Every structure is written in C-alpha cells, then in structure tokens.
Amino acid sequence: MTRIERIIEFLNQQPKDNFLRHALALEYIKIGEEQKAQDLFIDLLTEAPDYIGSYYHLAKCLERMNDKEAAILWYEKGMAAAKTAKDNHAYSELQAAYEELVY
Question: How many CB atoms lie within 10 A of CB 87?
C-alpha cells in the first residue's frame, strides 16, 4: 500500500482531519499531481483558515502551475492568518516567498 493509499484510508475514517488532508496534498505534489494538491489545500484552507502551514505550500503549488496572481493572493491570505495567529515564523516565511515572487 502506498503512502497516498494509507492517507486516503485514514481520511475515509476522519475526513476532516486537517493534518491528513495537508499530508495528502504534499504527497500529491511529490508525484506531480499539482491540481489535486491545489484542490485539497483550497478545501482545507476554506474550512480551516487557521491551518497556517498550508498557505505556503498552496502558494508554491500555484507558482509551479504558473498562476502568479493566485499565488500572491494566497501568500497575502497566509500572512494575514499568521499575523492573527501571532505566528511570526510562518509570517516571515510567507513574506519572504511573497517578496521573492512580487519583486
């Protein structure tokens, strides 16, 4: 059984587990399934906007898919969420990636 299959099996038991959804999206990225990863990250962040770690990975995924405008938007949303959560480390990472893309 592959990692993706195992995570999907766990998700069938706990479909709203944010850690598992995030992990599955990362596994899809590893095999080049960017669209599946994007869809998972967007669903996750729509339902749990405080799951800060997913913003960076979603925006990077969008960059790889050549959707610069959407990547910028998600970096901005992530910075706002990190600021609200007082997560300075995540804010700094998101800001650095944002600035690298914009400037």
Answer: 17
